[in-house]
Write a structure and sequence with these properties.
With about 140 residues, this protein is α+β, with helices and mostly antiparallel strands. The chain contains two helices and seven strands, in the order βαββββββα.
């Protein structure tokens, strides 16, 4: 198994960041390659992702939830992977979001460098989504 890891500081309190990430159906808001995401039951989800001209399907299950600390998953069907997203409070009220993933090379995954680029992009999108939604509405 290969692995990738990336972190980002989100200037939003940990509770709000955790709750947003736990809304798995909202992943397309910051992961534009996710074309379809369906909840199958409390812990199982099916998604369809596009990468370039190719589409991939996978089913994953949430195997651990520790509120405001971490969410872990593994695939049960599709390209083999598992991982954890951790949420760590930061001084000043922000949150460090750390995404770690293990994957089977040549099982439908791109190169490690490509995965890291995509992960950096997704975390950047998540940071933007969270920080924009946390701004107070302008007085008019």
């Amino acid at each position: 198994m290969e692995s990738v890891e990336k972190s980002v500081i989100v200037n939003v309190p940990v509770g709000k960041v955790y709750r947003q990430w736990a809304q798995i159906e909202d992943f397309p808001k910051f992961m534009p390659s996710v074309r379809e995401l369906r909840r199958l039951d409390e812990n199982h989800f099916h998604w369809r992702v596009t990468r370039g001209e190719r589409e991939y399907d996978a089913t994953f299950e949430i195997v651990l939830r520790i509120p405001e600390r971490r969410i872990a998953w593994r695939t049960s069907c599709g390209a083999e992977s598992s991982g954890v997203v951790s949420f760590e409070p930061q001084p000043g009220g922000g949150t460090r979001v750390t995404f770690k993933m293990k994957y089977a090379p040549n099982a439908g995954w791109d190169s490690k460098e490509s995965l890291l680029r995509r992960l950096t992009y997704r975390l950047s999108n998540f940071k933007f989504l969270m920080e924009q939604s946390d701004k107070p509405a302008a007085a008019g």
